[in-house]
Structure formats: C-alpha cells, structure tokens
Amino acid sequence: MTGILETTGIIASIAFTVGALTLPIKDNVYWKTCEHLYLGFAAGYSLIIAINALNSNLIKQLLTGNVIYTIPLILGIMLYSRYIERWQWLNRYPVAVIVGVGTAISARTIIDAMIIQQIRGALLNPLASGKDIVGSPKTPINNILTIITVITVVLYFVFWQMKGMDNIVIEKSRKFGIIMLMGSFGVLIGNSIHMRVSRLGDRFFYLLSPENQLYTLIFTIIGVISIVLSGRKSKEL
Amino acid sequence: MLLIEGRITGLILLIIMAFISIYMALIAERWSPQIRQLAGISVIPELIGRCAELGKPLHFTTGQGGSLAETEVGPQIMAGLSVFNYVARLCVKNGVKLIVSVGQTDTMGLLQEYVRDAYTAEGLPVPDMEEILRFHSRNQFAFISAVSGLMRRELPASNIVIGPIWAESAQLVCSGLEVGAMQLIGTARTSHIPFFAILSDYVLMGEEIYAAGAQLSGDKQTTNTLAAQDVSKFISILLLIIGVVFFTMTGNNFIKNLLGM
Amino acid sequence: MSYFLRRTAPLWLTTIISVYLFINYYFNIGGLQIEQLLLSFAVVITTASLGLGLINLSRSHILRIQRMQKGQWYYSIILLVSMIVTIVAGLFYGADSSEFTLLYDSTVSPLGSTLMSLFIVWLAPGAFRAVRIKNVESTALIITLMIILIGGSPIGSAYLLDSLTISSWLNSVLNAAAQRGLKITIGIGLVILGIRLLSGLEKTYLKGEITE
Amino acid sequence: MSQRSKWFTQEYLNWIIIGLMYITYILPVLFPFSPPLTIGEKATRFYNIVESLPEEPYILMAYDYSPVSYPLFQGLQEAFMKHIYSKNGRVICVAFSADGAMMYQKMEITFGYVWNTKTYGEDYVFLGYIPGGETGLASFLSSIRSVIATDFRGNLIDDLPIMKNIDTCTDFDLVIDCETGTTLGDGFVRQVSTVYKTTLAIACSGGATLEPYYPDQLQANLYPLPQVGAEYETLIKEPGNASAQLGVLFLGALYFILLFIFGNIARIFKRG
C-alpha cells in the first residue's frame, strides 16, 4: 500500500516543482492549478500545526490541572468575536495582550542589544590596531573608518531640517554616510545571491536525480504546451 | 539590590527617551519642527505627471501581509496609507487612472475613505470601488503573481509601493522594470532595501517612510515623534564622540565601562 | 460605560502589561512567576489566532464560488478541496505521523521551495536591465557587490585568493560599521514606537477592522 | 519624458536570460565538478568554539527555516551534530516557525544513518513548534516547562531522560539557531545573549545584517551559506551535502557577474 502512496507523492512533487518553474516564463493554466492547490494545502497545514501546538501549550496544561490556563482559553475564543457584528470590539482584548507582551519583550532588550551594545562596539581607539580579521591587515584605519561610518550613517537618518552651519555638517556627513550604506548594501546583495543560488541549484538536483528524470521530462513537456497555449489564448482575449 | 546589574544604563536611557518623546508629543500642537525635504516625496508629482503625459495608469500598493495590529508592521502600513492619501488626490486632479493592489484585509476601509475624499474634493462622482481597489490575497506568492499579471496587462507608467515587503521584493521591482514603469519603493524591512536601492528609480529607506507619512499627512504627532528620535540619535552620537575623544586622550575607555554598567 | 469597555480598557490593558514587563526586567521584584504566565498566555493567544487566516481565506473563496466569478470559481473549488483533504489527513493521522509528513513533502514542501527559489530568477532580468553606474553611491554598491560575488563563492576560494581577504574585510569592517549605524537608528525607532504604544499615544493597532 | 526604449522592455529578453540561467544550473548536475576550497575565518572560529565545549555538552538547536532553505542548512547541521556526538553531547531540537517542525522530520530521514544508532529521548529530542516569534522564544528560554508540557511526539517532558536537569537557557552549553528571517535573528541575540549570556551561534541567510553583533554578543555568525557549511565539513573531514553544491555555487555566482558586466556594456553600445 505505501508503495503507491510513495510514488504518487514523488510524481506530485515533481509536477508541482516543474509547474512553479514555468511561472517566470509565462503565467499559464498549469501554474494556476498548482497555485490554488498550494494555497489550500498551505492553509490546511498551518491549521493542523496550530492545533498540535495548541494541544501542547494549552490543552495538556489544563489537563495536568493548572486551571489558570482558562484565561488564555477565553481570550483565544474572544479573538473569533470579530465575525459577529455586535461583539466585534471584544477581539481588542486578546490583541491588546499580544501587543502589550510583544512590544515589551522586544523593546526592553532592544535598548541594550541594538543601541547601547552598538555604541560600545564602536567605542574604539583610533590609534590602536583594528579588529582581528583573518588575513586582513589590522591597521588603525579600520577603527577610524568604523567610527566615522557609524556617526555618518546615523546622521543620514536625521529628518529635522537644521539651519546654517549645522545643516552643512549634516548634509556633508549624510553624503559620506550614504556611500558607506550603499557599500554595505552591495555586501548584503552579494551574500543573498550566494544563498539563493544554492536554493535554485537544489531544485535542479532534485529534478535531475536519476530516479526522477523520467517524470521531469513528462511534466516539462506539459509545461511547454501549457505556456504555448496560454500565449495564444491571451492574444485572443 | 533593587536594580539589576548590567541593565542600569539601559533604564536611564529608556527614561531619557520616554521623557523626550512624551514631552514632544505634548507640545505637538504648539510647536513641531520642519522635516527635511525627502527626495522620494518630491518626485511623486513627477511620477504622476509621467502617467498623465503617457496616458497610462498609476499602480499603488501598501505591500502584502501583516496587519495594522502587529507592532512592527502596523506603522509601515499607516505610512503607506498617508502617502496614498496624497497620491490619490494628485491622481484625481490630473485625471490619471489609479489602480491599487490591496494585500491586507484590514486596510480596505481606510483606502475607500481616502478615494472617496479625493473624488469629492474635486467635485467628481465617486466611481465603482471594485475598479480601483483590487484585493488579491493575503498569501505572499498569490499576491505578487496577481500584481505582476496586473502590471503586464495594465502597463502602468509609474509604480509606488510603501509598506512591509518580504521575499517578493525582486519580483515586484522587476515586474515594474519589465513594463518600463518609473518606480518609487519604500519599506522599513531592512533585508530587502538593498534590492530596491539597486533596481528601483527612487527608494525610501527604513525610517524615511515614517518621515514621508508624517510630511504628507501633516500629522503633528508623528512629526514630533521623528524629532524625538532625532534627539536620541544626537545623544548616541555625542556619547560616541565623547567616548572616543576621552579614550584616545587618557587611554581609559570610561564611557564604554559606564555604558556597560 | 460602553466607550470605556470598547476603547479605553484595551489601551489600559496593553499599558499595564507592558509597564509590568518593563519593571520586572529592570528591577528585582521577583515577578518571574507572573512574567512566565503572561508570556505563555501570549503564546496561546497567538496560536489561536493562526486559525483566523484560514477563515479569511475560505470566506473569500466561498464568495467567489457563490458569485460564479468568471475564470476564478473552479480554481477556488480546487483550493477548498485541497484544504479540506489536508485538515482531515492531519486530524485523522496526527501531525507527527508519516502519512501527514508524506502529504506535506509531496505538496507544500516542493511548491513552497520552488516558489521561494524563483527569487533569483526574477532578479536576473532586472540585474541585466537596471544595474547601472549612475553616481558615486551606485559605483560603491557595484564594486562591493562584485568583490563579494567573487570572494564569497568557490570562484574566490579556489582561484582568486586575494578576494577572500578583501571580502572578509568588507564583511567585518565596512558592512559591520554601516549595519551598526543602521541598527542604532532602527533600535531608536522601535524603542520610541514601544514608548508611544506604552503611553497610549500610538493607536494604529486599534484602527484595523475586518471589512472584507 | 521618454517611454523606455522598446528593446529595454522586450519580452524575449526575459526568456533568453531565464533560459540561459536554467542551463547554468543543469550543467553542474549532469557534469559534476568541485573546485578546491580555502577555509575562512567564520568556519574556523565556529569549529574552535565547538572544540572548546566541555565534555558531554547540552546543545539547543532551533529549526527556523522553510523547506526551500533545507539545502542551505543540511550540510552544516549534520556536520555539527557529528562533531557534537564525537564529544558524546546531547542535542535538543525546537522550532519557532511553523515549517521548522517539518524540517526536523525531514532531517530525521536524511540524518537517519546517525540518529538510528542513537536513542530518541536520550541523545536527541524534538520539542515541537512554539508560536509567538520572539515572545515564544523568551518564554521558552525562561522556563521550558511553563510553555510546553509534552514534546512533538506527545511524551511528557519529565519522562524524557535528556530533559532531566534542563529547564532554562543557562542549562545549555551552546545555543545554535538556523533561520532565514532576520527579525528572529536579532531576537535570539536579545533573548539568549543579552538576557542569559549563553554562547550563541546563528547560521542565517541574512547573516551580513547580524555582523555588528559578532563576535561579542554573537560568538559565531555563519554566512554565506552553504559555503560555510562546506568549509565546516572539510574541517571535520566528513564531506556531505554542502560540499556537493560547490559546482553549482561556482557557476551561479559567475552567471551573475557576467550579467552585471554585460548589462553595463550593452547600455554603452545602445547609447553609442
């Protein structure tokens, strides 16, 4: 029994992979079907995972006797009051709890992790040698550049329109800051491309692995037909 | 000891920033600073002029996913809606066709309100909303496929996107490039700003979308929030400069140890 | 009374919870027990809210079927059928069963993976068309991009060994400094946003109401 | 205001670029080649951190990525677990994103040849999906038992021998988070390193934005993936999934370099 299930699973997975690869070339019927199947499966999957998590973090807690968990149970149900017109305002209470906890949890540590530690990290001695980077020279230029870049990037995001001397200082440092920021963006895009090359590469590894090559060929043909047909159909539209 | 070791300077900085932002909020009615002219905003009339000249529609969206109830995403959507209010009025004044892709379920009410205001301000009859505001889906890929399909059919001359954008950034900006649209894209989600900096004509980075929202909506509260943020930025820079000068002169990293308390 | 229950009470609830969690972080008031309860309550409510997405999705697609929207309604049927199949399989076999994992591995996993891997396919035509050296900033961007493309990949680590040194300097000095400045700016923005939420000045999160 | 020139927006230009790209990904699969590798700073520092862990270390490993990113992390995670098991350590897995649960199940299949020789509940365990993003993470680290009563398979936490004296973040010798979003990356630095000061390693596709935390708050920042994974596999002399991708990474990066160069050259010719 599982033999059939396994093979249909593999065939479906190859069909979906090829279907998605036809999307950038041209939107077609084959892809439209895959898209709506995906939306259905993804929505169903997220509900099942939510129920499994709810079972562990709420139902098991209630069964093992801590009654205090009835409070989140009631608040959770209040979330669904938004579909009843008269009681719609009730759902603001669970939202208020999530917003209150979420804001406090991140904001209280952001001050230390994103502001204080970053200022401390930039408090370097411009005359001493820089960070120990394997292979790169540890010249004092690294420290001077770090200090100036941090100051100018922060000044780039100042929105208060100053006058006179202040304005000139801010405008000059904003010019240097944006160049450094753009340099860092180049680094971000480069690293992002490496990662995404591996993702697409893996899809072709999967499609062209010896046992899948036959199915890949079949669905590629179906994909090409679907693209050609959708080309002709859109002309008539 | 009541105060926890290592978190004291964090508390002091929090109190200073709380004092600044609440004080700025209270004096909002009497005084609010002038915001620097943002390149991204001063180009909007030019984008709308281009649509009028080429007789093509303008595409606008506040991005996809998230909702006003989420702490980090809500303000980004609000900034997008403030920019939309300004864009809608200009479009109706210049007789430019407006198409809006809606990616969130709870922004439809505000969008309809702004479109109605734009048309009544010009004394024109309010057209059918279904034609202007097009809800696609909350799912990331269904939304962006619908947007790029719409771009290929309607061939907009300009494309403005202000709001939260996730992994659909490349498809969004490249669909615009493909139809030859002039683009202004702004988001506070930093991981995708580099792609807009390299591919879009104009970009609003991080906090700049809040400045744009405040400048266009003229909302005094948000303007003063930005002023409070600028004061905190000046404080951070002062701490850094004093620390570095002190460290080079005396060799004792006094400010770093103080901040670590 | 009803205005207080509809508008001001939720605002006060957010402020009380946030202030308590701030105080408990900075002062030794021994509130660890209550904090853990508050956190696990928030986790439970977030889990319960995951169902909302599913209801919104099925409502909009049932509407499309009722209206027999041209060119759309049969796709909506496909969506609802595949959703029901997954829910029934998940409830019947259980989330950690091999049958449910097989269903996941043959539907959501391949489609989601391939869709996400298309990012680079969308990027390529744009990279060819629009990556121009227009001014000083874009020159800086393209130079660092080229060095990282070479240094961060097997091209550099196999043949052009100098690119490794430059790219690790770019990563750890130039990029780290610029990202440090960016983190300070974003950190200040988030903290001030947190303070505004805490003090009830920021009411955006109460504005959204479902009108779909 | 000119309408962008016809050539610029031609549809067939897309098909050429996308068609060529698909070919550059098919070639290394049909004719595999793997260029030599030099070990970088980030892989060496992470290797030394794991080497310096005490005997029988307890590790918390978070699965926070979706199916598309499995090839980025598989090589690194499997090599890391082999390294930990060589010091007979214990690995506690958890997921803070919905897809993470399924990624653990996938690793049970691909890493089965090692995990089958180990016993579930003693050498490795999976505690399931904790929703709520940073809030879920904070509450999990403060006390595991206050958030969940059972693991993903439904056995009670207290019945698992591996969880005997494990309840908060300070009980772990190393926390490693594998994720693709950048919001939770900062969340791990805030909740693990700022609050508990535990040794933290993050393998993240957006690692360049976490560089300011490295190395004081974030002891190991592993990117670009899977290149760092391939370097780590060579360090522990166990070539795996990451080393097999070197050919594709070589050609993929080369294709983009040529795209940028020819993009600029084509513009000069068109204007000339």
Overall outline of chain D:
elongated
Number of helices of chain C: 10
N/C terminus separation of chain D: 20 Å
Radius of gyration of chain C: 26 Å
| Text of the CATH class of the largest domain in chain D | Alpha Beta
Helix content of chain D: 40-55%
Q: Averaging pLDDT over every residue of chain D, what do you get?
A: 87
Can you lay out the helices and strands and say which pair or pack?
The complex is a heterotetramer of chains A (237), B (261), C (212) and D (272).
Chain A: H1 2-22, H2 29-63, H3 70-79, H4 92-122, H5 140-156, H6 164-207, H7 213-236
Chain B: H1 8-26, H2 39-42, H3 44-54, E1 58-64, H4 74-93, E2 98-103, H5 108-121, H6 129-132, E3 133-135, H7 140-154, E4 158-162, H8 169-178, E5 182-187, H9 193-199, E6 202-205, H10 208-217, H11 220-250, H12 254-259
Parallel strand pairs in B: 1-2, 1-4, 2-3, 4-5, 5-6
Helix pairs in contact in B: 1-11, 4-5, 4-10, 7-8, 10-11
Chain C: H1 2-26, H2 32-66, H3 73-93, H4 98-106, H5 108-117, H6 119-130, H7 136-151, H8 154-158, H9 162-198, H10 204-207
Helix pairs in contact in C: 2-3, 3-4, 7-9
Please tag this protein with its features:
heterotetramer, A: 237 residues, mainly alpha, C: 212 residues, 82% helix, extended
Please describe what this structure looks like.
The complex is a heterotetramer of chains A (237), B (261), C (212) and D (272). Chain A has 237 residues and is mainly alpha-helical. Chain A has helices spanning 2-22, 29-63, 70-79, 92-122, 140-156, 164-207, 213-236. Chain A has a domain at 66-123. Chain A is extended and about 75 Å long. Chain B has 261 residues and is an alpha/beta fold. Chain B is 58% helix and 12% strand. Chain B has a six-stranded parallel β-sheet, sandwiched between helices. The relative contact order of chain B is 0.15. Chain C has a domain at 131-203. In chain C, helix 2 crosses helix 3, helix 3 (73-93) packs antiparallel against helix 4 (98-106) and helix 7 crosses helix 9 (162-198). In chain C, 54% of the residues are buried. The mean pLDDT of chain C is 84. By secondary structure, chain D is an alpha/beta fold. Chain D has a six-stranded parallel β-sheet, with helices on both faces. In chain D, helix 1 packs antiparallel against helix 10, helix 3 packs parallel to helix 9 and helix 6 runs parallel beside helix 8 (183-196). Chains A and B meet through helix 2, helix 4, helix 5 and helix 6 of A and helix 1, helix 7, helix 9, helix 11 and helix 12 of B.
